[in-house]
Amino acid sequence: MGSIDRYIFRTTLGAFLMILVSLTSIIWVTQALRDIDLMTSQGQTILVFIGITGLVIPQLVLVIAPIALVIAVAHVLSKLATDSEIIVMNSAGMAPWRLFRPFFEAAIVVALLVGFVSAYLSPKCLRELRQWAASVRADLVTNIVQPGRFITIERGLVFHLRERLPSGQLLGLFIDDQRNPKEETTLLAEQGEIVENERGTFLLLGNGSLQRHAADERDPTVVKFDRHAFDLSQFSGQTQAVKFSVRELSFWDLAFPAPDNPTMLRDPGQFRAEFHDRLVAPIYPLAFTILAFAWLGAPRTTRQNRAMSMVATILAVSALRLTGFASMVFGIFAPALLSMQYIALVVMVGICIRTISSGTAIEIPAPLVAWWNAIGERFARRTATA
Q1: The domain boundary residue, chosen from 212, 235, 258
Q2: What is the value of pTM for the model shown?
């Protein structure tokens, strides 16, 4: 690898990593804020919060990495063009493929990263996320029963107790259950305790009252009781076996599923579409790099041409990726449509490879150039008069 190759390779990967980390961090923060209730309402520590929400990062990397690579390649090519280095190398007789080689080598590194994340790391983290989040949210005794606080166990179910004695006895209980839209139930009890047996986990309430208010009635019905059992089985640590979705299966499980795989039997269309999506995921970084270089790698004389080529690159990359998403969505119901993403990749990459081989620049049609110039002039006039 020559000095030019090392410079381009190092600069491209450096820009890629910076963009990837920045975009992933921003999106991760927005996703993590949705689960802030792990700390505020369920008493978890900051380490547990970061650990659980951090497991979604590989899935974000899987989506962001190809886009970050396109931005990095465009940035490096724009820098080379601004400094007239592309024009100099082209005048010195350097073939387009010679300039393209370090970009493609960087794309191979990103493709290997995406392949590893898609095949193994992302599904493993998603499985861990489901199991960990389920155990944290499910264990009412250790995580939710906190004296003096109103705790939303799930949507429509609020729990409160005044005090919890060292013996485990609960004092001053309040339960508001609005999960049934046709009837609201409110429980008040002086004391209670958690009881576990072969039938499940129950909250045994003593000396209290139960108030039921039907939606079509004006007055509630109040019943006093000495003993009342409230079922906590679905919130206790004794949860049922977790059923994994297709996104949480490794590539090996998708490629060679067991005949009795419950996920495949439950949703074969989604299973098949996910397999093809994982198969094509590492190809996108390579295809995006070829596409970006075909549009931006040729020497151009004006900044306007480079700007329009940049816009065209963004549109082409977006169209190619949206075709992949559409192929996966519609392929769930019509397997033949899964071929759309392969056809789009082959056609787009084939055109771009031919363009790079010929060393010609892809020119924007004249009507679009005129339209673009008219918009620029109009915007400049409005800015000047403002």
Answers
A1: 235
A2: 0.71
